[in-house]
Amino acid sequence: MQVSTALSTLDATCESLQLDDRTKFCMRGQLRAYAEHWDGFNHFGRYKLASINGVTEGIEVELRCNLSDSWRTISYLDKLLVDDFGNLCIMDHKMLSKWDFFPMSTDMRVLHMDPQIRMYQMVCHLNDLPVTHHVHDIAVNLKPSPKVVGPTFLKEIGEHCTYRGHKISEESHDHVMGTEGAKETDEMLEHTVYAALMSKPAKYFGHPRVNMSNDRVCEAAQRLVQITEEIDNRVEEDTHWKNPKHCKAFGKECEYLALCEHSDDPSSANWKPRGESREDSGSHSNRLSHSRVECYLGCPKKHYWRYIYNSTGIVPVAPGDSYYTDRGTAWHAAMDTLYRDNCDSVVVTANELLV
Questions:
Q1: Neighbouring residues of 30: CB distance < 8 A, sequence distance ≥ 6
Q2: Domain that holds residue 59
Q3: How does DSSP assign 158-169, residue by residue?
Q4: What pLDDT score does 57 carry?
């Protein structure tokens, strides 16, 4: 099992995104536990990174297709893999704050109706990729607060300069041994997280699977066509109503609330054109991504400001809180390296796949 390069990727990504050290070290412990847990099931030997006809890479797969005469849909799949039965599948990495892996739990039941999964499967279907199922690669995040180092660990640190059996730096050693009632350093938290995850790995890591369904593909396509028709009608009639429930959702104000309340002006220096992003390359108005669908269903007025206003849409000049997004970005970067280092690659043609 090769994990050192993935740890280096995680460190570099956390540094570039300016994530705090505690987050970085906790994620290091999580990555080590993830790799060791799944390696015990020969997980990385069971999957191969798929290249379809030498065109589609196994990691960060971009798929586009025509949804209607005027709209296109676009999806970015974390990975396309071929399992040990020859089946083509999607793998989607998720780092979540909690998840109940019990088969009849609400989390598991909702997963089978997840619109993002349906959209991914639909895009694969329209690209003639014979995907059989979707693997939700879930890692439940741990970020514990530092605790006072107990006498047993103090003895270990003093005698061996290790913590929970792992080497620590002289800086951590001197901090703990030189301070009465010292708490764990961020570096030591990596080993605490690793130990906690490995004590109950089934509680923190799982691979729930959603099988491909033609009915779900048809439902997803019909729903997306319906959404595009609604957007076109709202643009034509200039009726973009506001959903008050999303003005202060999850304890935070919507970034566009000031515009909706007319306490700010979209032409002010607080706003800039949305510009071109990977989901909006080309003409923005006919690109439909999962994030755009979520934005529209959550609040048509927010969708108007973000995607429609002044032809390009606008976004705040000052970025909002991106902690969870950045943490997910770092985790995905580490996963890409881990799978590249430990999975074989295979070039296949559609008729070679068992469907």
A1: 95, 139, 141, 142, 193, 194, 197
A2: 4-143+200-212+326-352
A3: HHHSEETTEE--
A4: 60
Distance, CA of 115 to chain centre: 15
Amino acid present at 15: E
Tokens 């020859």 correspond to what residue? 86
Q: Do 206 and 98 fall within a single domain?
A: yes
DSSP state letters, 244-278:
GGGTTGGGS--TTHHHHTTSS-TTSTTEEE----T
Residues 16 and 116 reside in one and the same domain: yes
CA–CA gap between residue 157 and residue 153 (Å, rounded):
6
Instruction: Give residue for tokens 């296109």.
Output: 72
pLDDT (0 to 100) of residue 124: 86
Please indicate, yes or no, whether residues 286 and 205 belong to a single structural domain of this protein. Answer: no
Task: Indicate if 278 and 334 belong to the same structural domain.
Answer: no
According to the model, what pLDDT value does residue 160 have?
95
Angle between helices 115-126 and 214-237 (to 10 degrees): 100
Instruction: Establish how many alpha carbons lie within 13 A of residue 304's alpha carbon, considering only the half-sphere containing its beta carbon.
Output: 20
Share of the chain above pLDDT 90, in %: 59
What CATH number did the domain enclosing 139 receive? 3.90.320
- Co-location of 127 and 95 in the same domain: yes
Quick: pLDDT tens for 167-218. Answer: 999 999 999 998 888 999 999 999 999 999 999 999 999 999 999 888 888 8
Same domain, 224 and 282: yes
Residue whose C-alpha is closest to residue 280's, from 85, 3, 72, 45:
72
Cα–Cα distance measured from residue 184 to residue 182, given in angstroms and rounded to the nearest whole number? 7
- Claim to verify: residue 107 and residue 239 sit in the same structural domain: no
Q: Taking Cα atoms as reference points, which of 146, 238, 155 lies closest to residue 190?
A: 146
Global pTM value: 0.87
pLDDT digits (tens, 9 = 90+) for 279-315: 444 445 688 888 899 999 999 999 999 999 988 899 9
pLDDT of residue 355: 37
Amino acid letter for position 301: K
Rounded CA separation 97/330 (Å):
16
How many domains, the chain?
Answer: 2
Whole-angstrom Cα distance, residue 76 to residue 289? 9
pLDDT for 18 beyond 80: yes
Which SS3 state, helix, strand or coil, does residue 96 take? strand
119 and 250 housed in the same domain: no
